[in-house]
Amino acid sequence: MRIGVCVPIGERGPERKPNPYAEMRAIAVAADTHGLDSIWVADHLFIHNERGENRGLWEAVAMLGALADATTRVELGPLVFCAPFRNPGLLAWSANTLDEISGGRFVLGLGAGWHQPEFDAFGFEFTRRVSYFADALEVVVPLLREGKVNYEGRFASGDAELRPHGPRNSGPPILIAGSRPRMLGLTARYADRWNSVWYGLPTDEFRAERRNLEAACRDIGRDPKTIEVSAGIQVFAPSVASKDGPDHVIGSADHLLEAFRAWEAEDVTEIMCRLEPPSVGVVDEIAEAARRLRE
Length: 295
Prior knowledge:
Blueprint: E1 2-6, H1 21-33, E2 38-41, E3 46-48, E4 54-56, H2 60-70, E5 75-78, E6 81-82, H3 88-101, E7 108-111, H4 116-122, H5 129-146, E8 148-152, E9 157-161, E10 174-177, H6 181-190, E11 193-199, H7 204-219, E12 228-236, E13 249-250, H8 253-265, E14 270-276, H9 280-294
Parallel strand pairs: 1-2, 1-14, 2-5, 6-7, 7-10, 10-11, 11-12, 12-13, 12-14
Antiparallel strand pairs: 3-4, 8-9
């Protein structure tokens, strides 16, 4: 089972303090040098919270390019790009370029979005976002996998050749995050990987989503085992929480090891750890738990 770390790129705490790039880079480099498998960043314009505040984030494509250059071995990608925020041709070109910068380590994580305030703020269509996502896949997937596209849809279109092509003939793997029937159907049709978030230990909710994905695969004649399954877990430092919960794990090597074993028993391919609060010290604990898991 692969184990990765989510690099925090948004404002944090009551004062909405931004994460400096130097701190984000340090977390990514620690994951890279400690033998972990992947790093991930969120993709939002902002998050409007229950207190009526907007919390901003750095832009994900630029951040991934910087982190790709700062690391040497980990996979990296968005968890996940909100497809309706970008023209699908531009999205494919960005993914292709990030795969080149990283030397073939990029994973294209995609979703349809869920946070309506950021759609409304910039005039993106929210109610039909899954329809846009479906059309966007008809452009992005052939460009990356075949190097060309000729498609005219209601929400997206493309008639182009992708040049220059990145380091992998079939492009980067495509990860889709989603849990509702239509999104799972698109996952079954197009994705190499599927992701569900956020958890502590495995839950019945996760298992139900996975069964629904497997059913969607069978509906189109695809072997569910050909899609890698990943899950995001929240890792809370001991100063934040004193025991594991349904949506988090304590960030000590002992607690993390038990959580990793539980997810491995579910036949999950990868775990992405979201850090609260983020620090290189928590990455050290994750890496120690990963080392002990693999012994």
